[in-house]
Amino acid sequence: MPYTPPSSFTTRPTLTGTFGMSATTHWLATATAQAVLERGGNAFDASVAAAFVLHVVEPHLNGPGGDLVGIFQTADASAPTVLMGQGTAPAAATIDHYRGAGLDLVPGAGGLAAAVPGAVDAWLLLLRDHGTWELTDVLAYAIGYARDGHPLVAGAAATIARVAELFRDDWPTSAALWLPDGEPPAAGRILRNPAYAEVLDGLVHASCTVRDDGPVGRAARIDAARREWRSGFVAHEASAFLGQPHRHSDGGAHPAVITADDFAGFEATYEPAVTRDFRGRTVAKAGAWTQGPALLQTLALLEPLADDLLDPSQEAGAHTVLEAQKLALADRDAWFGDDDVDLEALLSEDYLAERRALIADTASAEFRPGSPSGTTPFRPPLRETYDARGIGTGEPTVARTGETRGDTCHLDVVDRWGNIVSATPSGGWLQSSPTIPALGFCLGTRLQMTWLEPGHPSSLVPGRRPRTTLTPTVVLRDGAPEFAIGSPGGDQQDQWQLLALLRIIVGGYTPQQAIDAPALHTTAMPESFWPRTWTPAGAVVEGRLGEAVIEGLERRGHRVTRAGDWSLGRVSAVGRDMAAGLLWAAANPRGMQGYAAGR
Questions:
Q1: 515/588 Cα distance (integer angstroms)
Q2: Which residue, 86, 206, 405, 419, has most beta carbons within 10 Å?
Q3: Given this model, what pLDDT does residue 216 score?
Q4: SS3 29
Q5: Is the pLDDT assigned to residue 488 strictly greater than 80?
Q6: CA-to-CA separations, 20 to 194, 353, 419, 528, 576, in angstroms, rounded
Q7: In the sheet that 538-541 helps form, which strands lie side by side, from edge to edge?
Q8: Which residues contact 532 (CB under 8 A, 6 or more apart)?
Q9: Environment class of 480 (CB within 10 Å of its CB; exposed 0-12, middle 13-18, buried 19+)
């Protein structure tokens, strides 16, 4: 059958222009990025300014105590580069320590789950090396929103309401910041965070101690701010505050193990991207310390199949996409981590053919990792339910205990010079752990993605990065960057990006058509987030996929959950139409806060 044609209706146009394009998960960050471009900044200046604004205006989706993965290509580079902002496990974060506290999983909320915050240092590194603006100008937007206030988005208001009891009963410093007048704030209320404004002012003041003019002085000023972040007030306040016992998602009270020395010992870095060709494009991802290579494996499994089997809007295509993703995600959970992962073997043609042959006409309910080098794959604990004290009910991604599954934000920027950036900041959600009152933010919970079973690349080990779900993408054509794309969504990030990539590359959709099209994903893998349960043969679909397709998936054995018509995915993208000499941008309408802008 032919590929399903795109709908003639889109929620907004694919924007086009020649000057610069921005797309993020919050309109204030998009407007900030575009304002920087209008004032002569490049894509890197714009991205960093927007990222710090996201810390303020999407506090339920990311924060300065969190992490990031970015991928970018400068106008004069021959290949993309990964920006590594994933902090490591603290020196005292050992399996024995957590087991000794009676835990069989790293908690999903609370300071024991905190990796060293990596986002701020990574953004400052990117600004130093590839931006043009001074730090004081870049941070002015975020400082203004933190000090003078911003309208609270509906998602943040709902999250605060959901965890209000936890804040009142157990995390009083969080209640002091997020429950003005003792009650959850309504959406649209102006909220201020003067403590975080002071933190950012402190970074600016640290940078001003360097007086040299010119590019050497500018780099030294940014490095002075980086030293202040890693070794100064923030590190000492955070570690001292979280060293006091506080409630975690298991219901117990534990002190965190992170110290000021852990902060000082981490620096963000750059890495080469991992790439694979697909249908005339080259897709670039971060390494196997993220889930990124699983997208490359999924594309490789699908590439030789007929186009209709790559069409998520047809029953056979939706089924094939789900089954291919299950195989790739099983390999992710068996093999990926901050270790020497043999991606060459996982992406070899012989191994892919072996894996592709496992895709049958009916849904598999098994966890099926492969063995590309003949060694036994790690099999994580497989639970469909998890009985723990303190687990609450509520919206699917945030429980009343602060446990959060996959809330994140995203930004993409392309400028008129040809620089392009895709980045997915996350962690440090306001519901992650108690607010550090002197800082106005909390630390993240990325260590929940490690296992307390030893001997695996994703096992909890001091100094090792947790295998993160953060996974932005750059797509190249004839060696030049064509577009940047990404999405929040935890384990679903690459699943939702896959749908857009297939529809753009195979189906010929415009970017906005691809983003608007109905989405689906599998839940047939151990979740990366506490309590790390899985749903064998699980599939979640938007109702717009159509009853015929949904019922067909059920007949094939998928355990289908209908999630609503406009509920899955927060993909955004920017790119270049090199033949036409145009830039473009597209953003997700779901949730009613992501926007693109440009001219």
A1: 6
A2: 86
A3: 85
A4: helix
A5: yes
A6: 32, 42, 10, 35, 10
A7: 520-522, 538-541, 559-562
A8: 105, 380, 381, 383, 386, 448, 526
A9: middle
Residues 508-525 pLDDT 10s: 999 999 999 999 999 999
What's at 463, amino acid-wise? Answer: G
Two tokens, residue 499: 């749908």
Report CA-CA distances (Å) from 526 to 86, 229, 345, 392, 461.
21, 35, 23, 20, 20
Task: Kindly give, in sequence order, each residue whose CB lies less than 8 Å from that of residue 354, ignoring residues fewer than 6 positions away.
Answer: 370
Q: What is the pLDDT of residues 418-432, one digit of tens each?
A: 999 999 999 999 999
Tokens 């015929």 -> residue: 548
Q: Is the whole-model pTM more than 0.85?
A: yes
The stretches of 506-541 forming alpha helices (DSSP H) are 511-516
The answer to whether 552 and 545 have CB atoms below 8 angstroms apart is no
**Dist. CA 563–CA 392, nearest whole Å:** 20
Q: Does the pLDDT value for residue 533 go beyond 70?
A: yes
Q: Is 413 helix (H, G, I), strand (E, B) or coil?
A: strand
Mean pLDDT of the chain: 95
Residue 462's identity, in one-letter code, is: P
> Which DSSP letter does residue 459 get?
B
Sorted by sequence, the CB contacts under 8 Å of residue 344 that are 6+ apart come out as none
